[in-house]
Structure formats: C-alpha cells, structure tokens
Amino acid sequence: MAVRLPRPHRFDVYVAAGGLLGGVLLWAIGLGVRPAGDPIVLFDGRWPLLLPLVVTAGCELLRRAAPRTAVLIGTGALVLDTMTQGSLITLLMYTDLGYAVVLYGSPATARRVPWIAGLLTVAATVVPFAVWRVPEALLIGVAVGVVTFAPASTGLIVRSHREAADAARLRAEQTALLAEMDRVQAVSAERARMARELHDMVANHLSAIAIHSTAALSLDDPATTRQALGVIRENSVEGLSEMRRLIGILRDTGGDTEPSAAPTLDGLGALVDGARANGLDVTLDAEHGTDLPAPVELAAYRIVQESLTNALKHAAKGGPVRVTLTRADGALHVRVTSPYGDPGAPRAPGSGAGLVGMRERAALLGGTFDAGPDGALWTVRAVLPLDQGASS
After folding, report:
1. CA gap 202, 351 in Å, rounded
2. What would the DSSP string read from start to end of 20-35?
3. What is the pLDDT of residues 331-358, one digit of tens each?
4. Which stretches does DSSP call E strand in 139-189?
5. Is 114 helix (H, G, I), strand (E, B) or coil?
6. What is the mean predicted confidence (pLDDT) over 36-59?
7. How many Å apart are CA 201 and CA 365, to the nearest integer?
8. Which residues pair with 59 in a beta bridge?
9. What is the pLDDT of residue 259?
C-alpha cells in the first residue's frame, strides 16, 4: 500500500525554494562554513555539500505538514553537512525546522523539543570544555545553542502566545454566545410578561362587551338593550384606559413622565364593583394585611381579575362568586370559587391563555397554582410566597 505524503503548505514551498536557490548561489561562488582541509571535513570538495542542502530544503516542504519527520531527517542532513565544508543556508534552514517543529508539532513534541535542545546545548558546552580545557571549547556549546535551543525556545514562545490568543478568542465567542442567549431569554420573558398584562387588562372588559352585546342581540327589549349598551360603553372606556396605561409603560424612556402605577390589592373593591355591574354576584373576603411586596400584590390582583373574567364567561347566571385572600405561613393565599354555568347562556369564547398566565405569575414568585372543578364549583387556588415576592 502506497504511503501518501501530506501536501505542503504554499508558504513552505516558497521557503524551500528560496533556501535551495540561496544555497546553490553560495555554493556557486564557493562560500562555505569551513575551509578546505579542515580536520573535521571528511568529504572534501564542493559537490558533497549539495546533498545535505537539497535534503534540508526538501524537509522545509514538510515543516508544517509533518514537522517531526522534517526535523528528524533534517538532523541527519545537518550531521552530514558538518562532515563537508558546510553551507550557511543549510544551517539556517535547520534552525527554521527546529522552530517549526515546536510551533506546528503536537503538544507533546512542543514540550519535549526545547528540553532536548537545552540538554544538547549543555552537553555541547560541558563535554568539550572538560576534554580540551580551553575556553574556546565553550564556543561549541554556543553554536549548538544557537542552532537548536534558540529556535526551539522562540517557537515555544510564539506557540504560547497563539494558544493564549485562541483561548481569549474562544472565551470571547462563549461570552458573546451567552450574552445572545441571555438576550433571547430576556426578550422571551418580556414578551410573555406583556402577553399576560395585555390579556389580564383587556380580557375582562372584552368578555363583558361580548356577553352583553350577545344578550342585546338576542333579546328584543329596548330597556335591556339600552342597559347592555351602557355596560358595553363602560367596559370599552375602562379597557381603553387600561390599554393606554400599558402603552405608556412600554413607551416610557426614563424621562420626566412617570409610568402609571401598577394595580394593587387596594383596587380589589373597584374590581369587584365592576364585576357586579357586569352581572356577577361577587363576595370579597380580603384579610391580606398590609406591606405586601409589589410583585405579590400585582400577581394576586391579576389572578383575581382573570378569575372574575372566567366567572363572567362561564359561571351560572346569578350564581355566587366568592373571592378570598388570606395571609398565612409566610404566603398570600388566593381562592376564587364560582358555580358551573348554564350551557345555553350567552358567553364569550375562551382560549385558555388566562389559566396559563395565572400559572406563570405564581411560578415566577416561586408559588403554586391550580384550577379545576371542586364539587359543584370551579375553584382557583394560588399560593404566593411573600419572601420570593420581596426578592423579585
């Protein structure tokens, strides 16, 4: 099976071609590292130094694709080059291979090569000096350090900076992703809050309008029609007022105009009076005390409001509706009961969004909510913790 060599990077091709051309140029003018006749030169003459030059230039093609293979072969070529008159370009290309193997090699290789180069430098410094006992022997260690340890250390520094930059870029991308997720969640939560407010503000009035308009159309009685139109007008005006208040809150930009205050439990009396004007027999029993957290008051008010709206839609005509608020065990307990309605009576259609909104309001405060039949009554129960409301 044939071994497929990795494709060299374009820049590596330029480096290899430039090194080879430069080496050939120095060879052509007869410039070498060591003079002819030097004792270390085993292969005298000009032609032998071309082989390590060509091999090292070929290794430059693999400096990024296979850096460890390139530096191993290049080391052999450098040893061979020391046995000839030598080429400066071969030395320069080998230092680039030592730099590239740390920069582009595996993490393990990047850790080991500087240590190996450092040990070689120390050995090349200590051993010759111990053998010859002359200061000039220390230059061998300097030369080895320049050729091996210096490029490996440079590659390690550059790699560390690149890894730090990549880590910072990854953290920035993660931060941006988390910020986008927070933004989407905030938008979704705000849309849900607006939907609850809009439903609770308008549904009560529109339900009353739908029921009384249906009654006016079904009965040919001028007095009843006039009474129904009065109720319709009153609910229309109140509904428009609520809509203006919501629009004012949405358009508020923090200027001098203060947004309208959110409804509190002090307004339950007016809310019950309005339900009675729409034909409900409502009894209010509120013993919730004072100093309730604003989120708890708003949630309780909206739950009672929506419960009265549902009673107006579905309760039996003339049946009693009882609203009870009590404060016990660190929570506000809301309970609204109404009888089942007459299937033949006129009523407004429902979508179930009211129950969803009430359940969401209780959940946001860490409370509980349930609604369903309880004997002959339809019962809405909500428990709103006061400590959660204070921290919201």
Report:
1. 14
2. HHHHHHHHHTT--SS-
3. 999 999 988 765 444 455 555 667 888 8
4. none
5. helix
6. 86
7. 20
8. none
9. 47
Give the whole-number percent of the chain exceeding pLDDT 90: 43
CA distances from 167 to 12, 105, 154, 177 (A): 26, 18, 20, 15
For 45, the 3-state DSSP assignment is: coil
Token pair 């993490």 is found at 107
Q: Residue 379's beta-bridge partner residues?
A: 337, 372
Query: What DSSP character marks residue 281?
Result: E
Cα 95 to chain centroid, rounded: 44
Query: What are the strands of the beta sheet with 320-328, ordered from one edge?
Result: 281-287, 320-328, 331-339, 377-385, 368-374
Instruction: Classify burial at 161, counting beta carbons within 10 Å of its beta carbon; exposed 0-12, middle 13-18, buried 19 or more.
Output: exposed
Tokens 């007459």 belong to residue: 342
Averaged pLDDT, 123-142:
91
* Model confidence, pTM: 0.58
Q: Is the pLDDT of residue 3 over 80?
A: no
What are φ and ψ of residue 41, in 5° steps?
-80, 115
Q: Would you call 155 exposed, middle or buried from its count of C-beta atoms within 10 A (0-12, 13-18, 19+)? A: buried
| CA–CA dist 325, 365 (Å, integer) | 17
Rounded to 10 deg, the angle between the 150-218 and 353-364 helix axes is: 130
